[in-house]
Amino acid sequence: MTIQGTCAPQFAEVRTELERNFAERGEVGASVHVTLGGAPVVDLWGGVADPATGRLWSEETVVHVWSCTKAATSLTAHVLASRGELDLNAPVTRYWPEYGANGKDATLVRHVLSHQAGLPAVTAPLPTGAFYDWDLMTSTLAAQQPLWEPGTRHGYHGLTFGFLVGEIVRRVTGLTLGRFFEKEVSGPLGLDFWIGLPEDLEPHVAHTIPVDPTQPGVLLPSLYATALTRPESPPGLMLLNNGGYMAPGESDSRAAHAAEMGAVGGISNARGLACLYRPLALGGAWDGVRLVEPEQLPQMSNVAVAGLDSVVGVPTRFALGFQKAIDNAHLPPNDREGLLLPEDAFGHNGMGGSLGFADPKAQVSFGYAMNRQGPGLGVNERGQSLVDAVYRALGYRRTGGGTWFA
Question: Which part of the chain is the Beta-lactamase-related domain (predicted)?
Answer without folding.
Answer: 19-378
